Amino acid sequence: MSLLNRLNQDMKQAMKDKNKQKLSVIRMLKASLQNESIKLGHDLNEEEELTVLAREMKQRKDSLQEFEKAGRNDLADALKDEIVIITDYMPEQLSEEEVKDIVLAAIEQVGAVSKADMGKVMGAVMPKVKGKADGALVNRLVQQNLS
Which InterPro entries does the record cross-reference, listed alphabetically (predicted)? Predict the structure, then answer.
């Protein structure tokens, strides 16, 4: 089932359940997907849908950190709820160990030896873990294994 179909079904259910929070998040996700589709001029494939979801998740995580720093727990709590809902639509996340294995394989593949080769390694790793691992985690693991 495509992501858009799943969102439509879940949106109907959220309306029936009168779950305003979930309904709001689903509408936002649908709007983001449709805007991206319009921008690209074609229906989104699975990888493009994952890119949109990952971008929405990253925005919320960044905002959550800012709200927590500012002591705005009311806004932070609302964002945590949104993150939980968005997580339902994301593919299962890779464990740190799985990401480390991918990073080590990429380092060997591109022949990286120092931090100067970090761009090559990141370029090889990111397409493999797109939507399945946080970029900050990948970055940290690449740095650790290149030093």
Answer: Asn/Gln_tRNA_amidoTrase-B-like, GatB_Yqey_C_2, YqeY/Aim41, YqeY/Aim41_N
